Amino acid sequence: MGFNDRVYEIVRQIPEGKVASYGQIAYMTGSWRASRAVGYALHNSPHHAKLPCHRVVFKDGRLTTGFAFGGKDVQRDMLEAEGVVFTADGRVDMIKCCWSTQEAPGAGD
DNA sequence: AGATTGACGCGAA
DNA sequence: CTTCGCGCCAATC
Description:
It is a single chain. The protein has a single domain, classed as Arc Repressor Mutant, subunit A, CATH 1.10.10.10. It is globular, with a radius of gyration of 13 Å. Helix 1 (2-12) crosses helix 3. The protein has helices at residues 2-12, 22-29, 35-43, 72-82, 94-97, and strands spanning 20-21, 56-57. By secondary structure, it is mainly alpha-helical. It binds a DNA duplex through residues 1, 3-4, 21-23, 26, 31-44, 53, 56-60, 63-65, 67-68. It holds the Pfam family DNA_binding_1.
């Protein structure tokens, strides 16, 4: 399970207050198209308890509906508690919360 | 080995 | 803006 393990390692690196899209993770695994495989991996996550899978959302910033943690509302609450910003659309503010592998260059201006 | 599915992503209508 | 369809990858039957 190289791919699967790879996904876990990446998701684990997601800091609080930030979110990553399946496509983003898929890209890091080496398979930029394996967005579906990423979700599949998380679904099978053997250590999902320690994986911030709730920080993994759609490209649109939308959350997974009905499959996770008990509901997207719960996931949203978790993300907000982490510091993730949400828009009036009920979606994650990917503009500010899109996770990047690169550390903040200005360290917060 | 072939067919099917699934926490996706994007283009087109 | 919403809905439909196709492609992608990996895992499972």
